Amino acid sequence: MRPFRSGPSSKQPYFTPSQIDNMCCDELRGVGLLPSSPEPIRIDRFIERRFNVSPQYEDMPNGVLGFTRFGKNGVKAVVISAALDAEGGKVAARRVRTTIAHEGGHGLLHAHLFALDEIPLHLFDQDSYSGDQILCRDVHGDEKKAHRYDGRWWEVQANRAMSSLLCPKSLVLEAMKPFLSPAGLLGVEVLAEARREEAVRALAEVFDVNPVVTRIRIGEIYPPQGGQMPL
């Protein structure tokens, strides 16, 4: 892992997608929560085992889905919007799962920033932190924004980790096998565009996430326009 471009207190941390994939897989395996075959990740148990805290539910300011509280020894709390938890239904329950995983991403990728003697809060927008907390704001369900979080680097990184935690790459590759077909002279297995949405819906059920998560995840591994082999 290359944690900083230069200077530990002045530059943002940098991770490649492969580094985040590998880190999340290792972290799940390290606490005994990486399944041997595709199934929902017990993300609440991951938070408990990895950070020694249980997700809490509290009233939040309008538009805030959750936050992670940090200390010099790592994550002190993972807090989720009580309103989100109270919505009920499968879609809302899955949003709770993704929010918990998103906060777990902050815990894995950004805890070291708060362990510094001088916390580099200048790296964050002022409306995105409060003391020792990173506040995670709603993006109104737009798929592109759900992937980008308005371009804020810390949210992009945490969202990438969320995807890797809830849909580990090795399990996605296994779950995708029924949707691939051979193509070309070499018979390379590819994802036909006609089956992309079918795969999105099926994997959403397998991993107990909303389809936006699997649509992005599948798109990362099997990009459109040709259904390339996974990197």
Structural overview:
The chain is α+β, with helices and mostly antiparallel strands and 231 residues long. Helices cover 43% and strands 15% of the residues. It has 9 helices and 7 strands; from the N terminus they run ααβββααββαααββαα. It has helices at 17-30, 43-51, 82-86, 90-110, 143-148, 153-166, 169-175, 196-207, 211-221, and strands at 56-58, 64-71, 74-81, 129-130, 133-137, 180-183, 188-191. The strands form 2 sheets. The chain has a 5-stranded mixed β-sheet with strand order 1-3-2-5-4. A hairpin with a 4-residue loop joins strand 6 and strand 7. Helix 1 crosses helix 6 and helix 8 crosses helix 9 (211-221). The longest helix has 21 residues, at 90-110. The two termini are 18 Å apart.
Shape: globular
Helix content: 40-55%
Tally of alpha and pi helices: 9
* Beta-strand percent range: 5-15%
Brief overview, please?
The chain folds into 2 domains: 17-166, no CATH class; 170-221, no CATH class. The protein is built from 9 helices and 7 strands.
Describe the secondary-structure layout.
Layout: H1 17-30, H2 43-51, E1 56-58, E2 64-71, E3 74-81, H3 82-86, H4 90-110, E4 129-130, E5 133-137, H5 143-148, H6 153-166, H7 169-175, E6 180-183, E7 188-191, H8 196-207, H9 211-221
Parallel strand pairs: 1-3
Antiparallel strand pairs: 2-3, 2-5, 4-5, 6-7
Helix pairs in contact: 1-6, 2-4, 4-6, 8-9
